[in-house]
């Protein structure tokens, strides 16, 4: 699991280049070291990745580890990037780039390049690391690093007042790449939350440790054309895989990223996760743990949404399971999937870290992905510092050494999914002890209350009730009914039912609302863990 609290705790670093139209006076204040120019193209980067995969993996050399280990959480927090050195600080474009420093938690050096020139004649120059780009205490161990050590990552800055020429951009950023192949963006609500990854290798694969390939090089195209768009190329490398990526990132209402990737396997991979999203879910209103924490809910995402190839919209609330669990939702050419934060009510969190503003991340394939499954991995956690949820696409065909993958997809970082179902959506899932009020509560029976809102439910004639359509992998249902939520809101209904299930194995439940043969809601899926209910909640 990734310790999420360390992801964006460091100060940033920035670089500006003399070769990009900066005035002589600005050059004197922001001079950086550049490597020699070399021809560049994305196609050439792809061929380089292909050639790398045909050779044994050779980790990139790192700066002295004994020095990096000294740059701990506290020391790293005192290293602040001098934004006078931001790449593209004086244009072109409106989004300067700043850089993260290496340290104990980010030891893999990442090399940064600026790309310029006319189409077909692009060239790249490396931005050479120098401690002068950073403000740091005189006794910081970072002073001991050699020149050219590299950076840990980068982020794009933005002005929030609409004027990129003011100093306002120095305080705000909208996308960040830091650590392995992880990256984040803010959505409509100006808040970081869950992460995406370039690739996921053997997440929760029995008998195999998870592998974390690194983005080892980034290439920033000099902005031209659309003012709200930036283009970054990346080289990926790891023991099992190499690859090349092209990110076309647009800053609008939220953040939209078009990703073009070419991946090449060095060796077999048990679970190759395409377009993975990584998030944190500790607990929510679904199951109330007594005294676990003072807050009502703690999570970056509360559910997995899927729009499958058959056109069905599915909502799967997240779990904090008793043991690591992998769920697969088989599909062919999915229309999209994502980890969402649907609950936007501050009162449900009561926390100044703004969980109610965390973005949702939707993955939209731009080409057919064939047969496979959206897979959801949930890992138990007892704190919010760990990312413990992964959602990804896994192809049906085995991922064998020598395989090549060329994938195009779009990432939507927004407050909501970009293509919501026209049917009613699930807005709450609640569990409690089964049975009926005023009677002894039977052991081993759980009550479920699932709320749906909007869509056709808002147009039901007075006195007409929707039907709850239920099925499960095992167990039996009782005390099933639907009712309008008594809050005066039109189209807000809930389905209630009890489930009796013996044994410890999880129970997969499916539910939707219908009227006659017409579906009124998206499909709610849930994985119920009887073992955790008995051991943690005593029911």
UniProtKB/TrEMBL annotation:
Keywords: Periplasm, Signal. Residues 40-528 form the Glucan biosynthesis periplasmic MdoG C-terminal domain. Gene3D superfamilies: 2.70.98.10, Immunoglobulins. Its main location: periplasm. One of its GO terms (biological process) is beta-glucan biosynthetic process. One of its GO terms (molecular function) is carbohydrate binding. This is Glucan biosynthesis protein D. Residues 1-28 form the signal peptide. It is found in: Periplasm. Pathway: Glycan metabolism; osmoregulated periplasmic glucan (OPG) biosynthesis. Pfam families: MdoG (PF04349). It comes from Pandoraea terrae. Belongs to the OpgD/OpgG family. It comes from the Bacteria. InterPro entries: Gal_mutarotase_sf_dom, GH-type_carb-bd, Glucan_biosyn_MdoG/MdoD, Glucan_biosyn_MdoG_C, Ig-like_fold, Ig_E-set, TAT_signal. GO terms for cellular component: outer membrane-bounded periplasmic space.
């Amino acid at each position: 699991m990734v310790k999420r609290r360390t992801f964006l705790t460091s100060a940033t670093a920035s670089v500006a280049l003399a070769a990009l139209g900066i005035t002589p006076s600005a050059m004197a204040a922001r001079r950086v070291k550049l490597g020699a120019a070399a021809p560049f193209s994305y196609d050439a980067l792809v061929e380089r990745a292909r050639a790398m995969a045909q050779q044994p993996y050779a980790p990139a050399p790192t700066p002295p580890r004994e020095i990096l280990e000294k740059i701990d959480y506290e020391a790293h927090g005192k290293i602040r990037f001098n934004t006078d050195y931001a790449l593209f600080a004086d244009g072109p474009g409106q989004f300067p780039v700043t850089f993260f420093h290496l340290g104990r938690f980010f030891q893999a050096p990442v090399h940064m390049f600026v790309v310029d020139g006319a189409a077909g004649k692009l060239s790249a120059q490396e931005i050479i690391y120098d401690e002068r780009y950073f403000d740091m205490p005189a006794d910081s161990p970072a002073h001991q690093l050699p020149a050219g050590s590299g950076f840990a990552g980068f982020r794009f800055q933005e002005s929030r007042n609409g004027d990129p020429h003011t100093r306002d951009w120095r305080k705000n950023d909208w996308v960040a790449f830091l650590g392995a192949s992880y990256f984040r963006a803010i959505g409509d609500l100006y808040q970081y939350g869950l992460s995406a990854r370039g690739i996921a290798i053997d997440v929760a694969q029995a008998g195999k440790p998870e592998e974390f390939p690194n983005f080892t090089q980034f290439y920033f195209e000099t902005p031209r054309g659309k003012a709200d768009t930036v283009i970054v190329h990346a080289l990926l490398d790891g023991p099992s895989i190499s690859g090349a990526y092209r990110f076309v990132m647009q800053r609008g209402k939220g953040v939209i990223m078009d990703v073009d990737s070419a991946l090449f396997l060095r060796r077999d991979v048990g679970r190759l996760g395409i377009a993975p999203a990584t998030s944190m879910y500790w607990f929510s209103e679904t199951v109330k743990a007594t005294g676990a924490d003072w807050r009502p809910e703690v999570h970056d995402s509360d559910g997995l949404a899927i729009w499958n190839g058959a056109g069905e919209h599915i909502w799967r609330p997240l779990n904090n399971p008793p043991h690591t669990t992998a769920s697969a939702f088989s599909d062919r050419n999915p229309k999209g999937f994502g980890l969402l934060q649907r609950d936007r009510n501050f009162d449900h969190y009561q926390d100044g870290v703004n969980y109610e503003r965390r973005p949702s991340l939707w993955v939209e394939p731009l080409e057919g992905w064939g047969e496979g499954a959206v897979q959801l991995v949930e890992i138990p956690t007892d704190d919010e510092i760990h990312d413990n949820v992964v959602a990804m696409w896994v192809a049906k065909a085995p991922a064998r050494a020598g395989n090549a993958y060329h994938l195009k997809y779009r990432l939507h970082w927004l407050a909501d999914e970009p293509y919501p179902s026209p049917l009613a959506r699930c807005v709450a899932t609640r569990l409690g002890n089964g049975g009926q009020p005023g009677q002894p509560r039977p052991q081993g029976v759980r009550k479920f209350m699932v709320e749906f809102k909007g869509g056709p439910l808002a147009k039901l004639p007075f006195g007409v009730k929707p039907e709850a359509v239920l099925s499960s992998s095992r167990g039996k249902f009782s005390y099933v009914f639907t009712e309008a939520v008594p809050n005066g809101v039109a189209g807000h209904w809930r389905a209630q039912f009890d489930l009796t299930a013996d044994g410890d194995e999880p129970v997969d439940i499916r539910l939707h609302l219908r009227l006659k043969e017409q579906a009124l809601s998206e499909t709610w899926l849930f994985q119920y863990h009887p073992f955790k209910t008995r051991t943690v909640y005593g029911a």
